[in-house]
């Protein structure tokens, strides 16, 4: 990959130097005409460049949709969890398990509420028995682990798409760049001269697709890393809540075992 990038960079730099020298020596370059303006680039694009731009725009729209949806999901989860945690802690402090479950059901967007509700419902199924055994507490632990796994998968939904776009968009743009350089050399050969006007169309395609590919990739990579950090934080919070709930189950069992 490094060798390919170096070769492409060397070739592109050599081509630009050659074009600069040719533009100064050739009368074909028309004064006052900006071949590298956005409108001139778009008008001069070929079928391949247009296809590359369409693909990049689709990738951009998809990544923006994921960014907005994930941001709203994580914000709602954080907000509801802040409201949920003190209320359910107070209910469990007074051994009101049914009330804690009802509170959890009212905060469906909270990741903590889903985990706590799963553990409490499993624990409640054995609460009426005369003795809560270690196996029943282990069943509650497994319910908590399943809830954490399900919620983690929900939080990670769409992030793989951001990672894919962030890693492939520059190469899609590079594909358009290669075809732009090929068109520049082809136009140079057909014109029989080395004027800037003969190669402006191909170079504009190369520059535009490269820039668009980077413009799509960079935000996707940034947001992927940011959202991944958010998910890691949510996982830590769910693990801590599950651990505290297991401690509550053990204390509750200890109370029942006392004469």
Give a written overview of the molecule.
The chain is mainly alpha-helical and 259 residues long. It has one domain (36-257). The chain starts with a helix and ends with a helix. It is built from 8 helices and no strands. Residues 1-33 have low confidence and may be disordered. 84% of the residues lie in helices and 0% in strands.
How many β-strand runs? 0
Euclidean distance between termini CA atoms: 72 Å
Mean pLDDT comes to 77
Main β sheet profile: none
What percent of residues are in strands? Answer: under 5%
What is the chain-wise order of helices and strands?
HHHHHHHH
Q: Measured on Cα atoms, how large is the radius of gyration?
A: 30 Å
**Number of helical regions:** 8
Unreliable segments (pLDDT under 50, ≥5 consecutive)? 1-33
Oligomer: single chain
Helix fraction bin = over 70%
The shape is: rod-shaped
- Structural class call reads mainly alpha
Tell me the count of domains.
1
Task: Pick out its properties.
disordered N terminus, mainly alpha, 259 residues
Describe the secondary-structure layout:
Elements: H1 2-25, H2 38-43, H3 47-93, H4 97-105, H5 111-124, H6 134-156, H7 159-191, H8 196-257
């Amino acid at each position: 990959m490094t060798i390919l990038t170096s070769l492409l960079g060397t070739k592109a730099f050599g081509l630009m130097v050659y074009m600069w020298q040719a533009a100064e020596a050739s009368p074909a370059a028309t004064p006052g005409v900006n071949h590298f303006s956005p409108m001139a680039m778009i008008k001069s694009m070929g079928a391949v460049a247009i296809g590359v731009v369409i693909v990049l725009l689709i990738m951009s729209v998809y990544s923006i949709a994921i960014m907005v949806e994930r941001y709203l999901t994580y914000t709602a989860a954080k907000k509801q969890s802040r409201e949920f945690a003190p209320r359910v802690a107070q209910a469990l402090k007074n051994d009101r398990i049914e009330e804690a479950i009802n509170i959890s059901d009212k905060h469906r967007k909270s990741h903590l509420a889903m985990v706590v509700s799963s553990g409490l419902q499993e624990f409640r199924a054995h609460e009426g028995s005369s003795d809560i055994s270690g196996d029943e507490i282990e069943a509650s632990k497994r319910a908590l682990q399943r809830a954490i796994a399900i919620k983690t998968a929900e939080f990670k939904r769409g992030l793989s798409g951001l990672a894919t776009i962030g890693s492939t968009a520059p190469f899609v743009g590079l594909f358009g760049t290669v075809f732009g350089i090929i068109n520049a050399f082809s136009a140079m050969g057909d014109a029989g001269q080395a004027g800037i006007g003969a190669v402006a169309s191909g170079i504009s395609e190369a520059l535009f697709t490269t820039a668009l590919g980077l413009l799509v990739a960079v935000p996707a990579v940034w947001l992927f890393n940011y959202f991944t950090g958010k998910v890691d934080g949510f996982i830590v919070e769910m693990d801590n809540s599950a651990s505290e709930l297991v401690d509550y189950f053990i204390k509750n069992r200890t109370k029942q075992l006392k004469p």
